[in-house]
User: Fold this.
Amino acid sequence: MSSIPTKTRALGLRQDAEALHAAVSDLVRVYQFRDRDRICCYDISVTQCYALEVLVERGTLRSQELAEALMLDKSTTTRVVDALVRKGYVQRMPDSEDARAVSLTVTSAGRGLYGQINSELIDQQAQLLQDLPSEVRAGATEILQRLARAAKARFVSGVSVGSCAPVCGSSTRASSS
Assistant:
């Protein structure tokens, strides 16, 4: 048993959570604008770039699999894919296992575009990390990976924030008149 009283630990945890929330919010905000400004200059949205990334990394997928990977609903994923198909970055093909299904695959143009965008973003990361010792870089990466896994596990399990979050098994939402 720890010698630190439970209330003190809870207060420390709350303070740490507040500091983490502020830091993550700042980081996400900076990255959202960076991504929007860097990626959108290639005539694709950030979401379209994420879709290309998933298809490059995982290979051919059905639309539902892509939607799950992007954590989007099927109709939003369809709009994202439609735009990528129009631009020649993704191709729809008959599914090899199910004649009713369609598979999505990245084209060579899509792979090339994603490679260019990804390379530029990694170059920016290298610039951010260049003045940090290797053990700090490795520790930062490990912490971010752990936090991402924990957040994803909570998000996928349906845990959300606020009274407007849907209740498991319920299709009604809280009203805010």
